[in-house]
């Protein structure tokens, strides 16, 4: 009888190990393009998705900006940088998003006023939900001298939604 109990315990232990081995981290199945290195942002490690390149829509010149989503700790950020010299960004109102359904949504800059064309916006749960459930028709980027307008493509909109989903699941690696 003792041999039967031992075999039963070994069998249950083996089954529980198989169940544990089958648990898969959801981010591993998505093929998420999230990268993290040992660089620090304000003293903390961060992870980021691939950048999305946008061309200025309301200008004759070929001016570009990059929109990139990233994660630091448990917070998700939207980084926006225009590649034009001496572009000073307002602190409180850098991005207005106009969605295809007609809604307008404002994202406030949490980064200090600067003249290198950079805005860093910490996204709230409400912001993330709005971005995941709507497609952006245009983005207005406010600076001290002039305002820029960008029109993301359908592929850009899909990437934004996918990257937000990936970053939500991603765990930022701790310092070694």
Short overview:
With 176 residues, the protein is of the alpha+beta class. It has helices spanning 2-22, 26-30, 125-133, 154-169, and strands at 35-41, 44-48, 52-55, 64-72, 75-82, 95-99, 104-107, 118-123, 136-142, 147-150.
Please tell me how large the radius of gyration is.
22 Å
Broad CATH class: Mainly Beta
Mean pLDDT, rounded to whole units?
81
Please tally the β strands and state the result: 10
Total number of helices: 4
End-to-end Cα distance: 50 Å
CATH architectural label: Sandwich
Low-confidence stretches: 18-29
List the domain count as a whole number.
1
**CATH topology grouping:** Immunoglobulin-like
Q: What pattern of helices and strands is seen along the backbone?
A: HHEEEEEEEEHEEH
Helix/strand-derived category reads alpha+beta
Using the alpha-carbon principal axes, give the shape: globular
Binned, the helix content reads: 25-40%
Q: Major β-sheet, in short?
A: 6 strands, antiparallel
SS strand fraction: 25-35%
Describe the structure.
The protein is an alpha+beta fold and 176 residues long. Helices cover 29% and strands 34% of the residues. The longest helix has 21 residues. The termini are far apart.
State the main characteristics.
single chain, 176 residues, alpha+beta, Immunoglobulin-like, 4-stranded antiparallel β-sheet, 4 helices, 34% strand, globular
């Amino acid at each position: 009888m003792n041999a039967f109990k031992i075999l039963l315990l070994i069998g249950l232990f083996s089954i529980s190990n198989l169940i544990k081995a089958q648990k898969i981290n959801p981010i591993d199945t998505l093929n998420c393009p999230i990268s993290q290195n040992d660089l620090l942002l304000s003293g903390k490690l961060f992870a980021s998705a691939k950048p999305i390149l946008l061309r200025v829509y309301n200008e004759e010149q070929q001016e570009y900006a990059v929109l990139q989503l990233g994660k630091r700790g448990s917070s998700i950020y939207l980084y926006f940088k225009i590649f034009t010299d001496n572009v000073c960004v307002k602190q409180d109102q850098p991005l207005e998003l106009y969605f295809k359904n007609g809604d307008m949504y404002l994202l406030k800059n949490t980064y200090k006023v600067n003249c290198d064309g950079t805005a860093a916006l910490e996204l709230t749960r409400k912001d993330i939900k709005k971005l995941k459930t709507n497609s952006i028709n245009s983005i207005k980027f406010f600076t001290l001298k002039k305002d820029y307008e960008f029109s993301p493509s359908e592929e850009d909109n899909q990437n934004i939604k996918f990257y937000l989903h990936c970053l939500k699941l991603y765990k930022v690696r701790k310092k070694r």
